[in-house]
From TrEMBL:
<comment type="similarity">
    <text>Belongs to the class I-like SAM-binding methyltransferase superfamily. Cation-dependent O-methyltransferase family.</text>
</comment>
<keyword id="KW-0808">Transferase</keyword>
<dbReference type="Pfam" id="PF01596">
    <property type="entry name" value="Methyltransf_3"/>
</dbReference>
<comment type="subunit">
    <text>Homodimer.</text>
</comment>
<keyword id="KW-0819">tRNA processing</keyword>
<keyword id="KW-0489">Methyltransferase</keyword>
<feature type="binding site">
    <location>
        <position position="45"/>
    </location>
    <ligand>
        <name>S-adenosyl-L-methionine</name>
    </ligand>
</feature>
<feature type="binding site">
    <location>
        <position position="139"/>
    </location>
    <ligand>
        <name>S-adenosyl-L-methionine</name>
    </ligand>
</feature>
<comment type="function">
    <text>Catalyzes the methylation of 5-hydroxyuridine (ho5U) to form 5-methoxyuridine (mo5U) at position 34 in tRNAs.</text>
</comment>
<dbReference type="InterPro" id="IPR050362">
    <property type="entry name" value="Cation-dep_OMT"/>
</dbReference>
<dbReference type="GO" id="GO:0030488">
    <property type="term" value="P:tRNA methylation"/>
</dbReference>
<dbReference type="GO" id="GO:0016300">
    <property type="term" value="F:tRNA (uridine) methyltransferase activity"/>
</dbReference>
<keyword id="KW-0949">S-adenosyl-L-methionine</keyword>
<dbReference type="InterPro" id="IPR002935">
    <property type="entry name" value="SAM_O-MeTrfase"/>
</dbReference>
<dbReference type="GO" id="GO:0008757">
    <property type="term" value="F:S-adenosylmethionine-dependent methyltransferase activity"/>
</dbReference>
<dbReference type="InterPro" id="IPR043675">
    <property type="entry name" value="TrmR_methyltr"/>
</dbReference>
<feature type="binding site">
    <location>
        <position position="75"/>
    </location>
    <ligand>
        <name>S-adenosyl-L-methionine</name>
    </ligand>
</feature>
């Protein structure tokens, strides 16, 4: 389950080391789960993204959050602890092994009432949701980002934020496609299409952050006409 992209940082290694080890650690059982995941090589969001996500959610104070890509339930648990007593997190995953691990995480943290885990294909589940979600975190199959984008934007209110993880592909996102291994070319092409779309769309504002393997924050400025 080793996440290769976590070991190929897009910024200077010493800065990555500083951000991951000098920033405040998560307290309590969730912090223990984070450490266990790192020791076992389980792919969760890196600590610099954890700290940013905590800070950002504390500023915008969302009530309803949607996550696409549950994995072991770490990031949804983190977000569930940031939404307050009346907030809620809905998360989607299709992998049985991850679903089982996520359920254990929620039980361990006492978050079964704060998180709803929807099991199945995001492409089938997203159209059934009505939202709105103040904040959406997408960290799933990278080639699917462009396909999930219209539904994410439908579910966001004006002023809502979509945060998308792992958009730099370990810094190879700008390389000519001929230099990309054939097995990665679909991801490379569709990630570039996704970035081009959100960065140029007249009704969206976006900003790129060099956290982990790259994060893009997208705000819906007005109701979309296309």
């Amino acid at each position: 389950m080793r996440n290769e992209m976590m070991h190929r940082p897009v910024v200077k290694p010493e800065l990555v080391e500083f951000m991951r080890n000098k920033q405040k650690k998560i307290q309590g059982e969730l912090g223990v789960i984070e450490e266990e995941a790192h020791e076992a090589g389980v792919p969760i969001i890196p600590h610099e993204t954890v700290v940013f996500l905590q800070f950002f959610l504390d500023q915008i104070k969302p009530k309803n959050i949607l996550e696409i890509g549950t994995a072991i339930g770490f990031s949804s648990s983190l977000m569930a602890q940031c939404v307050g007593e009346d907030g809620h997190v809905t998360t989607i995953d299709r992998f049985d092994v991850m679903i089982r691990k996520a359920k254990v995480t929620y039980e361990r943290l006492g978050l079964t009432d704060k998180v709803t885990l929807l099991e199945g294909q995001a492409a089938e589940i997203l159209p059934t949701l009505s939202g709105p979600y103040d904040f959406i975190f997408m960290d799933s199959a990278k080639s699917k980002y462009i396909e999930f984008l219209p539904e994410c934007l439908r579910l966001l209110p004006v002023g809502g934020v979509l945060m998308v993880d792992d958009v730099f592909q370990a810094g190879t996102i700008l390389d000519p496609i001929e230099e990309i291994p054939r097995s990665q070319r679909t991801i490379h092409r569709k990630l570039n299409q996704f970035l081009e779309t959100v960065m140029t769309h007249p009704d969206l504002t976006s900003t790129l952050l060099p956290l982990g393997d790259g994060v893009i924050m997208i705000t819906k400025e007005r109701e979309l006409t296309e």
